[in-house]
Design goal:
Order of helices and strands: HEEEEEEEEEE
Number of strands: 10
Number of domains: 2
Strand order of the largest sheet: 3-4-5-6-7-8
Radius of gyration: 31 Å
Helix content: 25-40%
Shape: elongated
Length: about 140
């Protein structure tokens, strides 16, 4: 079957109309994304970076802390980074139960605390034998 010129014209017109709708949608989404980006940038620039420290003085924090809370709002995972090291704490089901990994300066430690509050701290010891240093 051969298409008439009128049918071809209507198909072309329909295709052009669909393209225009798609193009309008893309432009609309782009404008919306730019609006969201500008509001986020404005919000980030207007945030106050000073904090209140325990002694009541105002300063800038030198520690970054990431907390992951459970469904009850208690922090079960804490990851911290400071200028001289970092640490991670993984909490258990009951309050004192946790594992803590610390690296501050040249020192490292692993602390285990059970439900009864019993604590076991593991720290590496360096042994020097025959001018060879090794970690035990």
């Amino acid at each position: 079957m051969v298409r008439t010129s009128k049918a071809a014209f209507l198909d072309a017109k329909r295709t052009r109309r669909n393209f225009m709708k798609t193009q309008r949608s893309v432009v609309g989404l782009t404008v919306l994304n730019l609006f969201v980006l500008m509001s986020v940038v404005f919000w980030a620039n207007s945030a106050d970076s000073t904090v209140r420290i325990m002694e009541g003085t105002v300063g800038f924090p030198k520690t970054v802390l990431f907390r992951l809370n459970d469904s009850k709002g208690a922090p079960n995972v804490k990851i911290a980074a400071t200028e001289d090291g970092s640490g991670a704490s993984l909490g258990g089901e009951s309050d004192p139960t946790h594992v803590q990994i610390m690296a501050r300066g040249a020192k490292t430690s692993l602390t285990l605390v059970n439900k009864g509050g019993q604590m076991h701290v593991i720290k590496p010891e360096w042994i020097v034998r025959d001018n060879i240093s090794r970690l035990t």
